[in-house]
Specification:
The chain has helices at 8-36, 49-56, 92-101, 113-117, 150-165, and strands spanning 80-84, 107-111, 141-143. The protein has five helices and three strands; from the N terminus they run ααβαβαβα. The protein has a three-stranded parallel sheet. The chain is mainly alpha-helical and 174 residues long. 39% of the residues lie in helices and 7% in strands. The protein has a single domain (39-165), classed as Rossmann fold. The structure holds iron/sulfur cluster. The site of iron/sulfur cluster has 12 residues, from helix 4.
């Protein structure tokens, strides 16, 4: 039985058809590079971890070095939500509303044990705390600690930037 071959004319047509997509892939790479290096976090804190988050914007840690220090006061202008602090069940729907108001593509970081799993507030009989942000929204990067130091948040942001550059997406939204 002979091996089927694709006529040259068809190959040329396939290359021509694929050309726009190849160009779009290159545009995506450039866009991802721009997105990764110009993150706009939402000005938004939940509890003690937020103090560490504020510290990264100060002169000592200077988040501007990584293009992520333009904290925005409105979710409609932000593309990064840093979940910093304990999430009460009462607050969870409010967080989700803010997340939904952020335009895509958008990303989120769970900073600290509380936003990963409930942290020190997770115990038998507990009724008021959401045991992790992933119970109700997507999370791209997790940063353990109670609280994580500002250096850990910077490491998390750098990891997120790497993922954005590679075009990797997690969870829903965006
Ligand atoms: S992880 Fe620790 S420092 Fe962060 S909000 Fe929870 S209790 Fe506070």
């Amino acid at each position: 039985m002979g091996v089927a071959t694709v006529p040259d004319r068809d190959l040329e047509q396939m290359a021509e058809d694929a050309a726009p997509w190849v160009r779009l892939a290159m545009v995506d790479d450039v866009l991802n590079l721009a997105r990764a290096n110009s993150l706009w976090p939402l000005t938004f804190g939940l509890a003690c971890c937020a103090i560490e988050m504020m510290a990264v914007g100060m002169a000592k840690y200077d988040l501007d070095r990584f293009g992520a220090a333009v904290f925005r006061p409105s979710p409609r202008q932000a593309d990064l939500m840093i979940l910093a602090g304990t999430i009460s069940r009462k607050m969870a729907p409010v967080i989700l509303t803010l997340w939904d108001q952020m335009p895509g593509p958008k990303w989120s970081i769970a900073m600290g044990g509380c936003t990963i799993s409930g942290g020190p507030f997770k115990y038998p009989g507990e009724y008021a705390i959401a045991e992790g942000a992933e119970k109700f929204m997507p999370v791209d990067v997790h940063i353990p600690g109670c609280p994580p130091r500002p250096e850990a948040l910077i490491a998390g942001i750098l990891q997120l930037e790497e993922k954005i550059k590679q075009g990797r997406r997690f969870g829903r939204g965006g």
